[in-house]
Amino acid sequence: MSKVFRALEKAEREKQIFPAREEPLIELVAAKPSGSRNDGPILKDLARDIERFDLPPGEEESISIADNNDFAAEQFRKLKTHIFRISPAPPRCILVTSTLPREGKTTVTMNLAMSMAQEFHKKVVVIDADLRNPSVYPASFSNRKGLSDYLANDTPITEILKNFNGEKYIVIPAGAPSHKAAELVGSNKMKTLIGALKNMDEETFILIDSPPILATSEPLMLSEWVDGVILVIMSDHATRGSVRKAFGGIDPKKIIGIVFNNKNLKPSKANSDYYYKYYKK
User: Fold this and answer.
1) In sequence order, what DSSP letters do the residues of 102-140 get, joined into one string?
2) How far is the first Cα of the chain from the last one, in angstroms, to the nearest whole number?
3) Which residue spans within 165-267 are E strands per DSSP?
4) d(Cα 85, Cα 89) in Å, to the nearest integer?
5) CA torsion through residues 177, 180, 186, 189, sign
6) Rounded CA gap, 238 and 241, in Å?
7) Which of 11, 14, 119, 281 qualifies as a FRET site for 239, CA 20 to 30 Å off?
8) Tally of domains within the chain
9) Is residue 96 situated within a structural domain?
């Protein structure tokens, strides 16, 4: 924990040196995955039944910060490589959360997924599990059925799976906002869905974008069913107290990394590695 706080303090000092930039910078605190697995029915041969969804011109650029930014792209490559190589059996189902709102967890989730999907044999399923305030995906997804419809009704699984600009990137949008978000996300049906997705094949990774961990109960419930947790911290936004509370609610064996997201730093090309470091336990 002290290493996390020292990293926060260092980021605060460094943000006074460099002018602001728009894209996030990432520092990762590495840890070992728990290696836990959940059983569930195997979803076979779904690719032919999933709707192909291509974003209108301009919308993909609005959610990707790495396409035209070499430094940002390299940070997500490093994060991706860390996940793939963390152990012989890497965590395939990962919860991405933050301490508080507006710390960049959605940006991290989507850009990490895009980076993963570029690997030759890898597929990615991204789940928007913020049923209170769906915001992961562009406006084009806003009126489509999603996770809330599947959990609350009898909507078939094939109606909520969307191929996002390619067969290797599958999206489950949040669907209609629900005032019963905690009950739906904590249901056995959600647990079974996660287990089923994890059993699709060994090359499929699942990223779950959840609400902030200090704002709702859903991340704590989801953390019990995933293999690992990534905590996103905006270093000029989060406090020591909020970080300590966030850690207190998660099994430490599940935390595979902490992403320090600080849009106020601007490293040069020569010292970019200085802003992306591993702090081993």
Assistant:
1) SSSHHHHHHHHHHHHHTSTT-EEEEEE---SS--SS-GG
2) 9
3) 169-172, 204-209, 228-234, 255-261
4) 8
5) negative
6) 8
7) 281
8) 1
9) yes
51-60, 162-171, 173-182, 201-210: least confidently modelled range: 51-60
Is residue 215 in a domain? yes
Gap between the Cα atoms of 274 and 277, Å rounded = 7
- Residue 275 burial by Cβ neighbours in a 10 Å radius (0-12, 13-18, 19+): buried
Q: What is the CATH number of the domain that holds 255?
A: 3.40.50.300
Q: How high is the mean pLDDT of the chain?
A: 75
Does residue 244 form part of some domain? yes
CA distance linking residue 104 with residue 106, whole number of Å: 6
pLDDT tens digits for range 61-102: 445 555 556 777 888 888 999 999 888 889 999 999 998 888
Show the domain range for 162: 2-275
Pairing of strands 169-172, 162-164: antiparallel
Write the single-letter amino acid at 50. I
Give the list of residues 6+ apart from residue 126 with CB closer than 8 angstroms, or none: 109, 110, 113, 136, 164, 169, 170, 171, 172, 206, 207, 208, 209
Structure tokens at 147: 């996770």
- The CA distance from 118 to 120, in Å, is 6
- 280 is a domain residue: no
Q: DSSP letter string over 15-49? A: TTTS---SS----B----------------S-GGG
Say what the pTM is: 0.78
Cα–Cα distance for residue pair 228/241, rounded to 1 Å: 23
Bridge partners, 175 (sequence order): none
Name which of 170, 250, 165 is nearest 203 in CA terms: 170
Q: What is the pLDDT of residues 37-59, one digit of tens each?
A: 443 444 555 555 555 555 545 54
Cα–Cα distance measured from residue 118 to residue 91, given in angstroms and rounded to the nearest whole number: 18
Please state, in angstroms and rounded to a whole number, the distance separating the CA atoms of residues 112 and 144. Answer: 23
